From TrEMBL:
It is found in: Nucleus. PROSITE patterns: SET (PS50280), ZF_PHD_1 (PS01359), ZF_PHD_2 (PS50016). It comes from Protea cynaroides. Pfam families: PHD, SET. The keyword Iron does not apply. Keywords: Chromatin regulator, Metal-binding, Methyltransferase, Nucleus, S-adenosyl-L-methionine, Transferase, Zinc, Zinc-finger. It catalyses: L-lysyl(27)-[histone H3] + S-adenosyl-L-methionine = N(6)-methyl-L-lysyl(27)-[histone H3] + S-adenosyl-L-homocysteine + H(+). GO terms for biological process: methylation; regulation of cell cycle; regulation of DNA replication. This is [histone H3]-lysine(27) N-methyltransferase. It comes from the Eukaryota. GO terms for cellular component: nucleus. Residues 237-359 form the SET domain. The lineage of its organism: Eukaryota, Viridiplantae, Streptophyta, Embryophyta, Tracheophyta. InterPro entries: ATXR5/ATXR6, SET_dom, SET_dom_sf, Zinc_finger_PHD-type_CS, Znf_FYVE_PHD, Znf_PHD, Znf_PHD-finger, Znf_RING/FYVE/PHD. Residues 54-104 form the PHD-type domain.
Length: 371
């Protein structure tokens, strides 16, 4: 072998020149991409810090009282809770959209057809025309006339409401209530309702009340049942539900209402207070303050209720607000159960709006921003 020749070791295979080259596959296999969940698990979070110290209220222009200012989750503009109309009493739970961004549609008026009204309120049709409502105290007054003045002691009793005599006017009144209920996606209920998962009816016992509860006498209990029977027949209190841009839905008298008239009973779903501690509903009503706080009950008219849901409260921090009060809210022991009644405390003229104090003796409800 010539010295210039070098030997290189070769461990590979030998390919003949006449062998055809290997063909590549016609389509390459698809590349496997990561799922969106895998990407989001490993992707860093982008946090954008914004200083909201310079945000002012869009209504009053002031940036003070930041603890009572709501920020819209859509436009990031600020609004004081007491500058909004209607006023927002509690900080809403979850997201909140300001009125300009929410784009509320105009309220649709409930169709004033008798058949629709009857179906909506489940009015019981009566073949005979009921007599005009008479107070159970009328017979008592006749009996007292023969008594001497020494034996007679005047006691203030509840009197039933007097429905409008004109059927068209009553239809107008019921239609206004139906409009307000449908606008809030509520069902009409003139009774306390006990839903699964909430407080049972057995929890509503007046004997659980701390310190006792005022017992509704026999005559007033008859007045309550008389008013409930009239409502079932479609004879409603002379009340109209109207919409005010400042107060929202509110109730006004459609005719003269006498002092001590039973206006309505506060109705809705009954639940334990402990289950509603973080609820942002602004219309909950205390039903039972039990000796054990875990047994206390409230009425929640967020899904079911009646006209009591739309009667507004006064600002009990100002003399002008206290002057507007013409109703009182009283909790009674009715046949062993707690019930809440709204009663007129003075004569109410036609067109006057109805107001009562949201705070009984508890003074826990914030009313200092009420109009």
């Amino acid at each position: 072998m010539a010295p210039s020749q070098k030997i290189f070791p070769f461990n590979g295979s030998v390919t003949k020149r006449t062998e055809a080259p290997r063909c590549l596959p016609l389509s390459t296999p698809l590349k496997k991409y990561k799922s969106m969940n895998e990407i989001m698990e490993t992707a860093p979070y982008a946090v954008i810090d914004r200083d909201y110290s310079d945000v002012g209220c869009q209504e009053c222009g002031s940036g003070d009282r930041a603890e009572e200012m709501l920020l819209c989750d859509k436009c990031d503009k600020g609004f004081h809770m007491f500058c909004l109309r209607p006023i927002v009493v509690r900080v809403p739970i979850g997201s909140w959209i300001c009125p300009p961004c929410s784009g509320h549609n105009r309220l649709r008026r409930f169709p004033l057809k008798q058949t629709k009204i009857v179906d909506f309120f489940r009015i019981q049709k009566c073949s005979d025309t009921p007599d005009k409502c008479a107070s159970p105290q009328d017979n008592g007054k006749r009996r007292r006339r023969c008594r001497t003045l020494v034996m007679y002691k005047k006691r203030r009793r509840l009197v039933p409401f007097h429905p409008a005599e004109d059927p068209k006017q009553r239809l107008q009144q019921m239609g206004s209530l139906a409009t307000a209920l449908t606008a809030l996606h509520m069902e009409f209920s003139n009774d306390l309702t006990y839903m699964p998962g909430m407080a049972p009816r057995s929890a509503n016992q007046a004997s659980f009340e701390k310190g006792g509860m005022q017992v509704l006498c026999k005559e007033d209990a008859e007045t309550l049942e008389n008013c409930r029977a009239m409502c079932r027949r479609g004879e409603w209190p002379p009340l109209l539900v109207v919409f005010d841009p400042c107060e929202g839905f509110t109730v006004e008298a459609d005719s003269h209402i006498k002092d001590m008239t039973l206006i309505t009973e506060y109705t809705g779903d009954v639940d334990y207070i402990k289950n509603r501690e973080h609820d942002d509903c602004d219309s909950m009503m205390t039903l039972l303050l039990a000796k054990g706080p875990s047994n206390s009950l409230v009425i929640c008219p967020d899904k079911r209720g009646n006209i009591a849901r739309f009667i507004n409260g006064i600002n009990n921090h100002t003399p002008e607000g206290r002057k507007k009060q013409n109703l009182k809210c009283v909790r009674y022991n009715v046949s062993g159960e707690c019930r809440v009644l709204l009663v007129a405390i003075r004569d109410i003229a036609k067109g006057e709006r109805l107001y009562y104090d949201y705070n009984g003796y508890e003074h826990e409800y914030p009313t200092h921003h009420f109009v």
